[in-house]
Design brief:
The protein is mainly α. It has 9 helices and no strands. The protein has one domain. Helix content is 79%, strand content 0%. Helix 1 runs antiparallel to helix 9, helix 2 packs antiparallel against helix 8 and helix 3 packs parallel to helix 6.
Amino acid sequence: MSFQIWLGFMLACWAISISPGVGAIASMSSGLNYGFRHGYWNALGLQLALVLQIMIVAAGVGVLFATTVWAFLLVKWFGVIYLLYLAYKQWTAPIQDIEIKQETIYKSRRSLMFNGFVVNMSNPKAIVFLLAVLPQFLDLNRPQWPQYMIMAVTMISIDLIVMAGYTGLAAKVLRLLRSPKQQKYLNRSFAIMFAVAALLLSSIHQSV
């Protein structure tokens, strides 16, 4: 995996992780209700689901891309279109308040991890992103599993950092998102990140 390919992949990971979604909402909720040290177990559950999703992609879709050029090109441009779609949705996202209901019922670490796991496994944005984008960052002239491991470590490391921010600074993040002006800037910053990731992805060429 070249540095250019990894850089494009890393940027896409930051964009998909930072963009407010169900994972971020779950992390903020856990942080508000249980504090950072206990609530962060939700983020660990998110990563367990991510590991499983990556293993599914690596075990199945990667074989297809190793043997058929048309499949690589088809999903490559689908991935570019998908990232541009995310950019459009983020740029035009309506400004609205995010409300999280306070929970008084204590949850065990196992329950928080299970909650995070279910949230990520049932998140269409995460699943579609992996299926559409992940395989095309492979260098088909090199062993695939080590590359998948690099991508998995990159994604999980970035997501852990982002979810730590959402969990530990939940109250401040919510106040920021409740400001229409600040939320507009955040949304458009995420849109630009998605668009740049799409541009880098469109420039990638693989030979088989």
